[in-house]
Amino acid sequence: MMKRYRSERGQSLLEFALIVMVMFFIGVAALDLGRVFFATIVITNASREGARYLTQHPDDSTSTPIFDGTKKAALAEAQGSMVSLTASNVTVTYCLLADALPGCDKGFPVQVTVDYDFQLSTSIFFPSTLPLSRSTRMLVP
Fold it and tell me: I need a labelling partner for 45 at 20 to 30 A (CA). Which of 16, 80, 92, 128 fits?
């Protein structure tokens, strides 16, 4: 009877060790999923803020460097959020010049896109980065 108890104890220890590793991986993956959602929210807000700035300052398309204020507004929105963005992450498109006047034209759309490469904690099992991209399109009033 004593021998059987010892073999069951070893089996339980092995099963526990296997389950702990699986549960640890599931926990880390859940934290990564939460971080991905957080980063998505941050870059969405950054693109919205950039588009809002450009609709209020349509002459930003003539600044040097081009769209400097728009990019700064998007980066300021993401500042302090643990999502590191640079000006190269922000792209502005659809600012049409239909006349000879400088700036984005009234009634035309502007689009601000923010791209971000998210670093996963579970890079052993999955690709090390996950490309995230969010765009916001607004009309110049």
Answer: 128
